[in-house]
Protein 1
Amino acid sequence: MATAGEAARLVDDLGRSLGVPWTEAERAEAIQEAIALVCQVELVWRYPLPDPAGGWRPPEP
Amino acid sequence: MNGDIARLEAGYRAGRRTPEDVVEEELERAAEAQAVLGPFRRILYARARAEARAATDRHRRGTARSPLDGVPVVVQAGMQESERRARRRPSGDGEEGLLARLRSHGAVVLAEADTAWRLAHRADVSPLRNPWAPEHAGGDGAPASVAAGVGAAALAVESCGWLRAWSARCGAVAFRPTRGALSCGGIHPLAPTLDQVAVVARHAADARLVYEALARARRPRARRRGGRLGVVPPVSLEGEAGAWAVRQAYEAALALLARDGVELVPVEPPPLPTARAAALTLWYAECLEVHRTRLAAHWADDGPAARRRLMAAAAVGGADYVRARAVRRALGDAWGPALRRAGVDALALPTAPPAAPEAAFALAGGALADTLLYTSFFDLIGAPAVTVPMGRDALGLPAGLQVAGAAGEDAAVLDWAERLEAVRGPWPLPPRRSASAVPVGSSGQGWAKVENVTVMASSVSFGPGGGPL
């Protein structure tokens, strides 16, 4: 899970790799949204998944 | 309660009306709605008239194809394209496109509704307006169109609960069946593991008719009149911004059901914020994957919010995506047993926390997460869910009640929707408006401040500060 700082770097990396012609304001907004998204992702990681007592289970298709 | 489709069919059969008459009226209404609300990408005048002529001939000869023959409908833009794509390159299981199947039943496609993606995100598109209060947002073309009285039903893709939330805010019924029950073959994906075609209508009976006509497998009608319905304790709904009026409508609707003899069984709600987080994690990642190759080349085609969301998806890593899928599986595994333990086949809860925001706010991207709080759980796990309009707030904005069941319990969910409509009473069409009556632009931003709620049954209403029934 990315931290807020890492989220900004990931957004920049994606922009560079795709060559998107964004403005500085658009870049800042995307980073802001990425940081908000990181908060959602954090909730996903906080959810206590049941212990796989039965051992290994095949991944869903 | 019978829907519009049964009434149309009876009229056609008795020779009181013809599909041509009906479609001509509907096209006029569509043009009016387009001028005031803007729900369509295009209105299909010539093709709809030709289809209506053919349907009229079939009814005169007594060779109507199905209850949908000559029934005016709306489809989400992109399904037209998907039909062409499906013809050229059928999906793996060899099914025809859903739109082709709809037309094979004789339904007349009036118009293509604009999609939430384009409306909420494209910079050059005017805000879609709410049929009940045009200074407020309509959110999505299909529900805004049907709620305004154009088309007896509509087909649209539901990914994360957006369509049901906006159907509630527009005053329409929207039914998302169990994942896979309706084919998505040939439809351009947005978030492939979440996408599911849903039916929007003004009556649950109409949603049922369309769903049963198009479903992959015929499921027997449940027609169970189980007297137990799971409900979320109101205390669990505290603390959501702007949700006061929606909670009032929820409690009033439950009071109507209790008066009708339904036993309301408190059920611990599923972890809605976690489910929303997992759904959004998957949604962002899958949207980026779908759009990645076209993003730079089509940068100017998408609006600022679309660009922002696609780029923000970079923050979702592979491990995050896998974790979100694991959470989805765990929540999905627990859902059916939770209902069975409570001895109910469905759970009722509000559909969208706040009512429709002002149009300018929605155009700027709106509060995506707020909109999806109560709906995204069921989209995440692929369970059937339906929203039924239950009341309107002081500004006239509708609020809906959602009923959801375990996977495969589509018929039971639709049964509850029809029962809700029966206790609620008739839901009127919004007043017709001329384009000049719509305010130009919107001033403030944010959620509507609501003072009271009136549920449609005349015996149940709230004044300012009125408590639960």
Protein 2
Amino acid sequence: MNRLFDWLDHRTGYRSLVHEALHENVPGGSRWRYIWGSALTFGIFVQFITGLFLWMAYSPSAGSAWESVYYIQNEMTAGWLLRGIHHSMAQLMTVLLVLHFMQVVIDGAYKAPREINFWFGLGLLGVVLALSLTGYLLPWDQKGYWATRVATNIAGVTPLIGPWVQRILIGGPDYGHHTLTRFFALHAGWLPGLLVVLIAGHIYLFRKHGLTAAEPRRKADEPFWPDQVLKDAVASLAVMAAVLVMIFWPRISGAGGPLGADLSAPADPSELYSAARPEWYFLFLFQLLKYFPGESEVWGAIVLPGVGISILLAMPFLGRWRLGHRFNIVFLATGLAGAAALTLLAWRADRLSPEFQVARRMADREAERMMVLAGSPLGIPPSGGASLLRQDPFIQGPKLFAKHCSSCHRWGGEDGQGGIPRDPASAADLKGFATREWLAGLLDPARVATSNYFGGTKLSDGKMSRFVRKEVSRFTPAQREELTGVLAAISAEAGLRGQAKADRRDAALIARGREVIRTDSMRCTECHAFRKADEDASAPELTGYGSREWLIALVGDPAHARFYGKRNDRMPRFAADQVLDAESIGLVVDWLRGDWYEPGEPHARASH
Amino acid sequence: MAACCAAVAATAAAAVPVAAGLGVLTDPVRRHVGGGGFLKVATLAALPEDGTPRKFPVVATRVDAWSRSPGVPVGAVYLRRVQGARVEALNVSCPHAGCSVDFDADRHQFRCPCHDSLFGIDGGITDRRSPSARPLDALEVQVREGGEVWVRFQNFRAGTAQKIPIA
């Protein structure tokens, strides 16, 4: 064996290389305070390893980036762990970098002859932050997409070259395939390459000038191996443990939720994403911009950070004077405190903003829903994941309702998205529309004229309302029982998914109810048509009441003779007047009817 | 002692990302192709009565990692009438290395354009020096009502003498 190593050493000289690497002198002996550089190197090693493996499963294009990340996260073995490590380590490295930097400044490790190494270090800091910024976009989810739009628009305000820089960065006039290919090439090629060069220079210069020993020295000098290496290895293990704690935090804290890095809904330029925020360590810059109105943004985005960076670069020269070194420390402390204060202000502003909270909830809801849809038996279509969300009643229904219906109607007292509209309700509350419970309320003398039903409309004192208040209130117990059957029969017309079981169970009751309607003992068909053409009908048809077809027709044209005719109160004719297209009406109707894909169904409903 | 501990700690720290990465890297080994059912490929009327093989695309739902595309070609087969309404199906992939074989109508045989494997009209090996270790892969066929020809489409491992389905 020894002869083999001798042979190898003769050809390569590896022994002197290993000796050089491991027997570096540590003045004053090994200490825990020297671990930061090694911990960072370990962090970079982990990012390279995890990044290369992620690369093997990632697809950088607008139609497949989110989908491939979804697949890594949810389908591939240990994919969530791999993503989690890469994501959490990026966060932790930012903290480690700041700590390392603080130590260098406080110890005056930037002083001659180490100025150039200090600049290498600053360059490394810049590259690592650029890696975070470019990596944030790669999943092509709503969060990364909107945050990157903001970041690149800020680059666009740079005087003179801004618009070109922006266009070159995003690869065209708008965000798309080439934004991803460029960001990916930066993230996985250019920047890591630059990082390697800078680290090589950083370590070479560090070795050339030796460690900046912290005084007073407690022990005699020692070689790097093994004591300092042990401390560095333990530090690396601690960093890895911290990363694992970050990944498993939802379990450890009991908060629940997916492990690893988040993945919001796929990027969609047509879906505003008000919850867009940069990574927490850029939040102070984000907050800073709020104080620069209009075109003065360039001061907050470019000039002020530029001045700060210039002072950092000048630190080795300033540090030549006693006072200068103090200035550097105070400057760094003030800068960090300022950044911390701005970060807190940004957090606080979001916590206190009801709009942000709603946006956040909607974003979480969409992200969760996306996981359900992508995991359904129909899977992700070739057109990509975003189309699943665009065609999903569960997500689009409430949005459409809030926008087009909630100025008059309510859904459980709200606008469908959890907000409370400013104006009071002036039409029926549609939560549970056409269910037996909802119909029971309509036929309840105490409720028919309240704002949950006809209260806010001109039908408040119409025939139906009067019939319920005057006649139904005097029903005998036998008639009440008949009414239960009638309600079940009308509700069964809707064919609601949520009531399918009850409808099957109560087939006899429903059949009796239909008979009661047909024989007109309850006077329904005096005004309503049921199961046969009726030219004299003056109220909404009961055939197919609440079914998909019936509701689409009603929303499309409530003033049609089949529904309210001339009696239609202010409800717009959504299809007839081209307020909404057929797809949107279908989505809101499906949502009102509780008809959307639920996990665990053998087959997702084919889209209508 | 310190040296030993340093080696253990460093290895443990590095093992976590490497293990996660290997999980993702080797994921394909744990994946299985779905399907395996009969697919409608053609009708009897589309097959020449004289028993000349004809190539047809096989259209099915293709699941490719995250995307699921219904109604796309997933492969092709040669169909040939034998004795009236009986039909034989051969996968077009050469069992040698997976090139798509051509039918040479003049010589009445299949020939692989890559390494010149020759197969008879029934798919059998006709050349003793054939690079292919086995005949063309026959597939199960059903002729259903209305003359519909349904094939149980499968791919098999290349280069082996035995016909081993890719699962």
